[in-house]
Amino acid sequence: MAAHFHCSSNPRPSQPSLLVFSGGTAFNGVVEELKKLTVRVAHVLPVSDDGGSTAEIVRVLGGPAVGDIRSRCLRLADESTSEALAVRRLLGHRLPINPQQAKSEWYKILEGEHSLWEGVSKPYRETIRAFLAYFQNEILRRPNESFCFSNGSIGNFFFAGARIFFQSLDAAIFLFSRVSDIPAESLVLPVISTNDRLTLGCELWDGTIIRGQNEISHPTNIIGPVDKGRSSVPALPSRIKRVFYMSSEGTNSLHEVFPTVNQAVLDQLSNVDCIVYAMGSLFTSLCPSLVLLGIGEIISSRSCPKVLLLNGSHDRETSGFSASSFVTAITDALNRTYGNSHNCLRNLVSE
Asked: Which Pfam families does the entry mention (predicted)?
């Protein structure tokens, strides 16, 4: 890929620009290596996750899911100084699984008495604490909802506090990027810029409708982290036909909604040197970004390299899939083949 860019007849900056469609976990391991090639990367992430720590924030405070965005921001964060490492350690910390222990540790962090604050200078400390306190205040304003801090992510709490304070997901990302000292050329873009809760649904080939990303990908009652690739969850009764967005009240495909794609994503797609479909949960991490109106139109118009990074193993969503099955699922999502006939495209796989 690097050779392709260096041989291009058009003069370019020394570093190639990429746009990566991914979720918040699987591609994280590549981020560190990718930094060695280029920091000019736009990371496009879904905001429909409804599992783990994110689920509790969405349940009590509403809004889009911030877990995948927080995860990627931390991977991009500066590590060159001891303070940068201290900030990354703090915002990457998870509370204990035990609810009482989690709540106790949360209050120690909130009050600035936890050892995680060591190495964080006063300006950074007061900035971070202010938004953690704002998050806590928002919880207290909802006395009818008991918030469970079990396995909670401090970074998620900070992010949620900033989003509610600014009433802007983009502003929260900007603040997080500055606090974490992410390179200005590295963009973390929610595929939908919204303050509303988003619900993902899927339709199986047998007609079954499943509501919620967690229910599609790895249904479990476990509070702690889940191994999506190896967790013992029941197989889907049929393969996934398509994913779509549902209204917060709807329970079937008649309640399908069509959120507007983030304009910044379309702008980046129009100009980057390469588009990457990263490894991860095919239908719940990649396709939620690809099915939005406008994405398939721009990608099919671009002649730049388009790269698919295949998964190393199957999961609940892709049992029995071949490499060509992944390609077909991605192109079907971009063409919106099985959605509303008025929104379908008919681009060739090669496009």
From this structure: CofD
Mind listing the pLDDT tens digit for each residue in 243-287?
999 987 655 556 889 999 999 999 999 999 999 999 999 999 999
Residue 342 C-beta-side C-alpha neighbours within 13 Å:
1
Kindly report the number of other CB atoms within 10 A of residue 177's CB atom.
Answer: 18
**Residue 117 structural domain:** 78-181
Q: Which residues contact 280 (CB under 8 A, 6 or more apart)?
A: 22, 23, 25, 26, 27, 286, 311
> pTM of this prediction?
0.89
Length of the chain (residues): 351
Domain end (from 154, 181, 208): 181
Torsion angle in degrees (nearest 10) through CA of 283, 288, 289, 292: 130
Residue 147 lies in a domain: yes
Residue 73 belongs to a domain: no
Per-residue three-class SS string for 25-94: CCCHHHHHHHCCCCCCEEEEECCCCCCHHHHHHHHHHCCCCCHHHHHHHHHHCCCCCHHHHHHHHHHCCE
Structure tokens at 69: 């965005």
- Are 141 and 236 members of one domain? no
Q: Is residue 4 part of a domain?
A: no
Number of domains in the chain: 2
User: Using one digit for the tens of pLDDT, what is the confidence trace for 128-162?
Assistant: 999 999 999 999 998 888 899 999 999 999 999 99
Residues 294 and 204 in one domain: yes
